[in-house]
Amino acid sequence: MPYKLLIISFDAEQHHALKLSFAQTQYQLINIGHANISSENIRKIQPDLGIIVGDSPEAITMCGKIKNISSMPIIVLTKNRESITELAAIKNGADDYLEFDPTSPTLQYKIQRLLMNRGIRPQIEIPSAGLSLDLDRREFRLAGLPIHLTRTEFELIRILMENQHRVVDRRELIERLWGGWQQADHVLEVHLSRLRGKILRAGGKNLFQSVRGIGYRLH
What are the start-end ranges of the H helices in the chain? Predict the structure, then answer.
């Protein structure tokens, strides 16, 4: 079952960009108007995490309103990150405060961290391929059977599974795996080849499609 992210928006442009950035992820985005925030609606929706979008002072006030009726973690997204506003958000109950960049993986990392800290074990599954990934236990399974992966192999399959419906650029993979480009194409190929070999030896198929000049995707 996908994790439910409750979105309370005070900025239409940021809201639209957020929806696009989460279009192919394992999360279910549930939009609700800030006037409709109530303990009754929160109980009905049962969200795992809340995201407040916008620079309005009302966005900061909303943190306190939600914390009064729910224990779910809250992230505030803003176009302009300012230390004074960030402090106000944290004091009002926000668990994190980020300048939103739809091209950055930071937000998804923060969400996963907050879910794990709350005791919710994020899992990514692709039933059609028999793949499942337990991010808390760091277990990778093929058709229910565990496959031991190195740290880099685990992060590599994680990124590809999180983005199963798109091609992931080589630069993005290298940036997320090692923190920099550094012409690491060959190193990436080595880890991908080892990961492919482990899956094939366990009875799986070749899941990785190379898109010439761009990167990789699962298929």
Answer: 12-21, 39-45, 57-67, 83-91, 106-117, 151-162, 170-178, 185-201
For 125-137, write each residue's pLDDT tens digit: 888 888 888 876 7
Determine the Cα–Cα distance for residues 128 and 58; give it in Å rounded to an integer: 43
CB atoms within 10 A of CB 61: 15
pLDDT in tens, 28-37: 889 988 888 8
> Among 187, 136, 134, 132, which residue's Cα sits nearest to residue 164?
132
pLDDT digits (tens, 9 = 90+) for 130-167: 888 887 678 899 998 999 999 889 989 988 887 777 88
Q: What is the DSSP letter of 208?
A: E
Helix pair 185-201, 151-162: axis angle to 10 deg: 90
Tally Cβ neighbours within 10 Å of residue 99.
Answer: 13
β-bridge mates for residue 210, sequence order: 216
